[in-house]
Amino acid sequence: MTPQTQSEASREKLPQRSVRPPDPLPLKNRFITNVVQAPLFLLATALCGSAALIASLFAKTGRTQHRIARLWARLSLFVSGARLTVLGRENLLAHPVAVYASNHTSYMDTPVVFASLPFQFRILAKKELWSLPFIGWYLARSGQMPINTENPRSTLSSLGKAAAALRAGMNLFVFPEGSRTPDGTLQSFLSGAAFLAIRAQVPLVPIALSGVYDLLPIHTRHFYPGPLTLHAGTPIPTDGLTIRDADVLTQKLRDAIAGLLDQSR
After folding, report:
1. Residue 184: which region, alpha, beta or left (left: phi > 0; alpha: psi -120 to 50)?
2. Closest residue by Cα to residue 81 from 28, 22, 23
3. How far apart are CA 126 and CA 207, in angstroms?
4. pLDDT of residue 19
């Protein structure tokens, strides 16, 4: 499944679901998920995770593993029945290296991000994901960066490694909310994304994910497919900023993502 690209959002009003999915979901959605979608999703995850693990034995740059991850992401979205549209693609390509940050709404955020971003990148994510079969194996063998939010010393070490990766030319993706939203609304942001962008003196690119919460809310394991949107906003420069500006930059990032979400409603 190849995401549709639309760079001029103002010319086309995207179809958006006006109400949240019913709870519980209709029997039809639960049946299709249990019988068709979930088995196919798990199969795609197992096959691609195993392929990435094997590839890591001889592919040291991570490019092969990243291609496999993009294949997994597109297969996952195809299986879910959702249609993805990418807006602001020019903002994804505006800088050779940047920190990309988005709201965190669902387990399906990761497939949406991998299917949409047209370059190799690394994810800074909670270490708990590394314990998941296949997904954790991919994360461990492809150079992704775990962060332990309960251990400040570990957090600082992870941020230091991530900043070094940025300075070496590797793009980084962060969910600044830290965890999935429980109700679909934008939560408060941690300052890690701003800290990294300032440390590496690279732009901070806001990204808004719409419709993904409805696709797989936190309180269910069943798909409720509808239109999905990844909207990349104008990069926020960090030239001349210092770590003392991290909180102000974090608020700018949150405001930018909130604005993009408003445009998608």
Report:
1. left
2. 28
3. 19
4. 56
Give the DSSP H/E element, type plus range, for residue 60. Answer: none
Q: What is the CATH number of domain 24-264?
A: 3.40.1130.10
**Please, what are the averages of pLDDT over each run of 10 residues along the chain (265 residues)?**
43 47 85 96 91 82 87 96 95 95 94 94 79 72 71 66 87 91 91 92 97 90 94 96 95 97 84
Q: From 67, 112, 104, 106, select the one nearest 85 (Cα to Cα).
A: 112
Q: How many CB atoms lie within 10 A of CB 68?
A: 24
Residue type, 82: A
Count CA atoms within 13 Å of residue 154 on its CB side: 11
pLDDT for the residue 149? 63
Q: What is the CA radius of gyration of the chain?
A: 18
Partners of 208 in the β-ladder: 231
Residue type, 201: Q
Look at residue 224 in the predicted model and tell me its pLDDT: 93
Contact 227, 211 (CB under 8 A): yes
Q: What is the pLDDT of residue 2?
A: 47
Spell out the alpha helix ranges (H) of 10-141: 27-32, 38-55, 63-80, 89-92, 109-116, 135-141
Residue count (the chain): 265
CB 230 within 8 A of CB 84: yes
Q: Tell me how many degrees the CA angle 95-98-101 measures, rounded to the nearest 5.
A: 125
Give the angle 11-13-17 at the CA atoms, nearest 5°.
165
d(CA 77, CA 1): 7
